[in-house]
Amino acid sequence: MDNFSFFPEQASTMAARIDSIYFTLVALSILFATLIAVFLVYFGIRYRRSAKTDRSNILHESMALEFGWSFIPFLMAMGIFGWSAFVYYDINRPPDDALEIYVIGKQWMWQIQHPLGKSEINELHVPINQPVKLIMTSQDVIHSFYIPAFRLKQDVLPGRYTTLWFQATQPGEYHLFCAEYCGTDHSQMIGKVVAMGQQEYERWLSGNVASESMVDAGKRLFNDNGCSSCHLASGTGIGPALEGIFGTEVQLEGGGTALVDEVYLRESILDPQAKVVAGHQPVMPSYQGVISEGGVLQLVAYIKSLSNTQ
Ligand code: HEC
Ligand SMILES: [Cu+2]
Predict the structure, then answer these.
(1) Which end of the chain is more exposed for a tag (fewer CB within 10 A), N or C?
(2) To test the ligand 1 pocket, which listed residue (219, 227, 243, 248) has its Cβ within 8 A of the most ligand atoms?
(3) Are the CB atoms for 231 and 223 separated by under 8 Å?
(4) 19: which residues sit within 8 A by CB, 6+ positions away?
(5) 21-54 pLDDT tens trace
(6) Both ends of the chain: CA-CA distance in Å?
(7) How does pLDDT run across 55-71, given as a tens digit for each residue?
(8) In this structure, are residues 137 and 158 in contact, taking their beta carbons and an 8 Å threshold?
(9) pLDDT of 303 above 60
(10) Ligand 1 center to 67 CA (angstroms)
């Protein structure tokens, strides 16, 4: 408990912005609670039954008062709404140049996969002063990825990808908690985020285990599972070519379009019949139960790499 604090240090670019909203709300609440309490006591004493206070000239209506106590709180509420919405918007828009790291939550641990192949359990190493985007999913129940020092928290859901982005500002080790009750050992589902300088991070990334990058692993799965026999780069196979599709809109059978993002790719692999590409037969087999969530992430990374032509 010695390193537990109610106000952890502010270690991300979002932290100070969120704290300002928080402290403003607390200050306003204290202000109004105090005002009401003081007037309550003051009037209670002043107009108590035995007091000889002047009770003539009772005020029955006042447009100015009505207007004032409706309009001023309204402005305050809208101000807080606008301010919070502004911050919320930024929290939900990862910058395009963010470093992408994949996270899988499972009972009861966090599995982290770095694009260049390094993977870790219950630890997340990130560089400071660079936006990092986490693409997260769960293998079983709902978890929640929570880093108090960054003031950020995002649910991690089975069957979906959610994202969380941040930019760490100081090197250090920070608590990582699962913030959604997820079963017996939920309280043990803890880890740490290690933020380090760019060079240290590079060194850490390239250190020991020369494992396969996510793209390479995805490419291997793509060949091993027969994807490559239907999805030919030439587009002449049974399935559509996957080159360059990421980030585009595809036409669907029966009208409509879909944006090709991580969620769409995952669905195309696990539930191919959910959205059938126009001009194709629904003949792709489902890989539900065949390829793990980790494998799907690697395939997604590989298919994304087919669209990186710069
Ligand atoms: C039997 C042939 C076949 C195999 C094997 C196959 N697919 Fe497909 N795939 C298709 C067809 C046909 C479509 C188009 C119809 C549809 O959307 O279901 C498709 C669609 C897709 C799409 C959507 C493409 C788009 O343009 O929107 C993706 C992504 C995809 N497959 C990935 C894979 C991956 C990854 C594998 C291997 C794990 C795989 N496929 C294995 C035939 C196949
Ligand atoms: Cu959990």
Answers:
(1) C
(2) 227
(3) no
(4) 7, 10, 151
(5) 999 999 999 999 999 999 999 999 998 888 888 8
(6) 49
(7) 888 888 899 999 998 99
(8) yes
(9) yes
(10) 62
Domains, the chain: 1-43+94-211 (2.60.40.420), 214-305 (1.10.760.10)
CA-closest residue to ligand 1 atom 39: 227
Which backbone phi and psi does 47 adopt, to 5 degrees? -105, 25
Is the distance from CB of 107 to CB of 144 less than 8 angstroms? Answer: no
Residue 106 β-bridge partners: 109
Ligand 1 atom closest to residue 265's alpha carbon, by position in its atom list:
29
Contacts of 175-179 with C-beta under 8 Å, sequence gap 24+, read 175/8, 175/147, 175/148, 175/149, 176/110, 176/122, 176/124, 176/145, 176/146, 176/147, 177/146, 177/147, 177/148, 178/105, 178/108, 178/110, 178/143, 178/144, 178/145, 178/146, 179/144, 179/145, 179/146, 179/153
Distance (angstroms) between ligand 2 centre and the Cα of 210 equals 30
CA distance 47 to 70: 26
Residue 3's pLDDT is 59
Q: What is the mean pLDDT of residues 254-266?
A: 89
Residue 279 has pLDDT above 60, yes or no: yes
